[in-house]
Design goal:
Layout lengths: L26 H17 L17 H5 L4 H13 L6 H26 L2 E4 L3 E6 L5 E6 L3 E8 L1 H6 L1 E8 L8 E8 H15 L9 E4 L13 H19 L8 H12 L2 H28 L3 E6 L2 E6 L4 E7 L3 E9 H5 L2 E8 L5 H7 L1 E7 H12 L8 E2 L7 E2 L4 H28 L3 H27 L2 E5 L2 E6 L3 E8 L3 E7 L2 H6 L1 E8 L5 E8 L3 H8 L12 E3 L2 E3 L20
Parallel strand pairs: 14-15
Antiparallel strand pairs: 1-2, 2-3, 4-5, 4-10, 5-6, 7-8, 8-9, 9-10, 11-12, 11-18, 12-13, 16-17, 17-18, 19-20, 20-21, 22-23
Helix pairs in contact: 7-9, 13-14
Amino acid sequence: MSTPWNTPGEGGSTPPPASHPEHPQSIQYTEHIQRTQRTQRTEGHPPSVGEPDWRRLSPRTLLVHCGWLGAPLGSLALTALATGGRITGGAWLTLAAIAAAFAVVTGAGLVRWARTGFRVTGESLEVRSGLLTRRMRSVPLHRIRTVDLTASPLHRLLGVTVLRAGTAGSGESGGELSLEALATAEGERLRAELLARAATGTVDEDPVLARINWRWLRYAPLTFWVVGGVFVAGGSAYRVLHEIGIEPWKLGFVRRAFEEFGNGMLWLTIPAALLAVVLLGSVGAVVLYVENWWDYRLEWADAGTLRVHRGLLTTRSVTIERARLRGVVLREPLLLRAGGGATVRAVAGGLGNKEENRKRSGLLPPAPRRDALQVASGTLQSPFPTREMTGRQESGSLVRHPRVALRRRRVRGVLFGVLPGAVLLAGLGAAFTAPVLLHAAWIYAAVTTPVALWLARDAYRNLGHGIAGRHLVARSGTFSRDTLVLRREAVAAWTFTTSPFTRRAGLVSLTAAVAAGEEGYRIPDLAEGAAPGFAAAATPGLLDEFLVHPQSTRGGTTYQRRKGDSAPEGRFGTGDMT
């Protein structure tokens, strides 16, 4: 039996009236379609016409999850070698436990892979996962700020990669969406698809800011890890051997080496040992440099996206949206600075928490300072401020800090660098009546005092701050001299910090709170009367409600905090402003 609205006519079927539940514009029909779509998404049914298909991760994901077997199996192999091939009952139990864990992990990985899917709709990236508790994550495409591809040696061997999409809220809260593991070609296509939604155009000039130059390898040994890395590696090896029941001190060749070292002439063996540590550390630094920065390329993928590609065994491809790029840091560690080198790091949001940010914010490996300045300027898309410091604020210059800051650094260098060692040696010499330790105490003080004073002088000469156009500039540090160039509008709050000693010296430290990078950047030991003025000039309007009108003095302009106003949390911190 046909009805008036479904009887075929000359021009096709006649639609039902608007009051009928099956009319396309009726409320009942719309709710029915929405319920059907929700059920399809929840139960994994094929999507309706017009919706993109759900895609799965690569089946090789299961092999990636088995990578944890390398450590226990390697420990068993080392144990077998150390015991001459004899496998103890405990080792067999360990092997059985590994087999059981392998079965459990593989089964769980299979279920997780089967129940995980993703798709890109017209407005969002959606990921669903879970067995007993189904979880659906949907990230709007306009909030995605970075799309990175990372592949460890195991990933590269299997032809897969890990895609991480950072959002505008990425940080300690974990606003990052990760897909592990995609086929390499699929990952590249997905990254291009996601970035295409946020592309703002093309770059008119050469988009490549820097490429690897292997002459930069000479800067690799000019880092702390030349010495510290050797001891860290030695400690890690000792811990691994100790965990598998091997005592390194009981090994024959180790005991013989220490006996020969102790029986030799120490005035020759100690310098030889230090030279060996430096050489070994230099080789390790070069190897790490090659592994981390192989095929390095820094470029503007488009007018709104900065991309860093690097890595030999573990490849990394990090993208930073220009809108989230707040500034750069030109970092010059002491040894690297002595060799004329520097590195560059980005101050950007969406790179994860502090630990992830340190791994992913590097823009340039240790390289000549000239190249570092070019990279920093290309990243900022404006000239990097390089003018010398003056006693007062000039356009683009850095202002010197009060000379009392030099005295503070000298006092701290003597108190914390010279006195503890000298007092310890003198105390041991007096307790054990050992004249050699008493002589060592005054020799130590005589040698370290000039070094501490020189470092204090260098730290003071590196202090400076200023305003260069749209950017705030701050420089400090001696073991690592850091020059921060930060967009002024990126500063969300100021913290003014003093102590009884700094108040007596008339100094105050400023900390700029930024929703990017290290989240807080400190400018130490400014003049107490100049600090509020500098903060107010750098971020107009941010401190107006806490300051009275400026007062003209011979030394320049000073600001005062309003009487009766308390220091709100996140703006002033501790200490009184005058």
